[in-house]
Amino acid sequence: MIHFTISIFNPWTRQTQYNEIWQRRWALKENGHKHLDVGFYRHRGMIFDIGISVTHRQDHAGFSMSFGLLGFYGDVQFYDDRHWNTVEKKWESHDT
């Protein structure tokens, strides 16, 4: 797993959460376990933010990338919606 993040926020802002501007989610592949999320948000206290994350063999494993500048923030996530079973070393399936 790889995580890299740099964030600079205004410490005097009173806003404590992101406001969603636009967000979409698409299910990819025939099995429906892969998803692509794209979102844009507003946070007045954000000055700069950049992040990259790559994970595997864990719950909701995948790739995510984010970028924020002067109060606006966007992210892209490609992930698997299943949970990883560490004992059996395979994806848990709840399909019926």
Describe the structure.
The protein is mainly β and 96 residues long. It has a domain at 1-10 and 18-52 and 67-82. It has strands at 2-9, 19-28, 34-42, 46-54, 62-69, 72-80, 84-85, 90-91. The strands form 2 sheets. A 6-stranded antiparallel β-sheet has the order 1-4-5-6-3-2, with no helix packed on it. Strand 5 and strand 6 (72-80) form a beta hairpin. It is elongated and about 50 Å long. The model has no long low-confidence stretch (mean pLDDT 82).
- The oligomeric status of these chains comes to single chain
Helix content: under 10%
Structural class: mainly beta
Task: Report the sheet with the most strands, covering strand number, pairing sense and barrel closure.
Answer: 6 strands, antiparallel
Order of helical and strand elements: EEEEEEEE
Strand order of the largest sheet: 1-4-5-6-3-2
Cα-based radius of gyration, to the nearest Å: 16 Å
Number of strands: 8
Q: Low-confidence stretches at least 5 residues in length (pLDDT < 50)?
A: none
Give the averaged pLDDT, no decimals.
Answer: 82
Shape type: elongated
How big a fraction of the residues is strand?
over 45%
List keywords for this structure.
mainly beta, 59% strand, 96 residues
List the helices and strands and how they pair.
Layout: E1 2-9, E2 19-28, E3 34-42, E4 46-54, E5 62-69, E6 72-80, E7 84-85, E8 90-91
Antiparallel strand pairs: 1-4, 2-3, 3-6, 4-5, 5-6, 7-8
